[in-house]
Amino acid sequence: MISSEGSNAELRLRIYAEPGEEFNSKNLKVKTEVVMKNPHVKVEKMGLPVGVKPWEPTLDALRNDSRPFTDTKDLTLHLYTLPFPKGEQGDGGGGLTECLISDVLKHKILSVPGYGARVPKPAGTTYRVSEAAGKGLGVFATRDIQMGELIMAERPLMITPVVMPSRCTSELQGLSHNDFVQVKLHDAEKIFEWVVDRMTPENREALMALTNSHSLEGGGPIIGRVKTNGFGESEIVDGPGAECQYSVLCDALSRLNHSCSPNTFRKWCGASFSMQMRAARDIKKDEEITTHYVDILHPAKGRKGQLAVYAVKCTCVVCANPEISDPIRAKCLQHLQQIERQDWQRDFDVPTSTNPKPLLGNLDMYVKSGVETTDVYGYCLFMLMKMYAARGDIPTMRVYSEKYARWQSARTGLVIPQELIDKGFGMISVAEMVLRMKGKMKGKAKKI
Ligand SMILES: [Zn+2]
């Protein structure tokens, strides 16, 4: 079960016909509309309120796989099967994704360099899905996994707008808020059914096997599963300004439970059109593999409120001891804000201080608190690599260079050449210069 910032949409879509035009498939248009929060609201009943007519839009206009080109400016939503239309070039390895997306987004997806690459496979079996005490199902490591290793890579089951099209709001004037929400949920489920109808039987089965934490909130079975398991992805947006936000729904990846000390990074790979999960620290066999649904640097009380939206009551050690964890997280956040203003990952200058003690203290604190998925952890590794280079200590420089490389691979999915790691990302020249200077100084001392 995964969620993220994308779940709280601030835009909604309107399905409409121009004034004077009949509301049919030819005239149908969908546009982003008023800014509002995506309602994680409960309504008492499922289905339509008494007196409200069923919504029967003809959505043939959305079936557009056969269109020969994509209009790079068209924000109208269409149904597509990706990575390639059915029957064309297969699925490129990794399965098919049903999408309700704009042409703008489709064009963006198809324009990624190397698009159509195969979905990478982890080395051997890395996980199993089984009962997690008090949390339903969870994902567990079947062997020791090293920081940076690929744990899973998966093509999404579907990609849909966070706020689904629904009937024109003017039809709903005079309805109570409860009835209004009920109609919106009903209409959204109808469109979801269109998307699900296009799925392969295996994908449909996988979707319906996912947890639905919202079954008592008045929405249908598909919307409930999407709300429970879908997550936002910064690269799956209409473009600069993110005119439309989308929900990405996966299978096994959606089974990961939340932790306030998560041990994985999630990364979208545009070339293979897949979501990938890598280890953010070393993971032991049988350890639960986790992600985060909310910002782990928020205080425990804030996280509790945000997690309630996903029906999650976190009982982790970080949440159980806020008097200890909150000050550490606050310090981590402060540190993060300081380094966010720096281009530290490209700064290979010799550090002004070569005393590693304060950084080693911070690193120890961050490891104990389990915040390896935040940039401050990588920053400490990077700075320690530079400091030990500046001290002429090549073996210790390499220890941090190796860790930093693994952390960067986990975070970005990039493979860093071993030669670059051995050379401390170029810092070895500093270390060698320091050693030469030390050698000369020793030589001078001898002469005296
Ligand atoms: Zn927690």
TrEMBL record:
Location of the SET domain: 123-294
Coiled-coil regions listed: none
Domain of life (superkingdom): Eukaryota
Pfam families recorded: SET
PROSITE patterns reported for this sequence: SET (PS50280)
CDD domains listed in its UniProt record: SET_SMYD (cd20071)
PANTHER family: SET DOMAIN-CONTAINING PROTEIN 5
Name used for this protein in its record: SET domain-containing protein
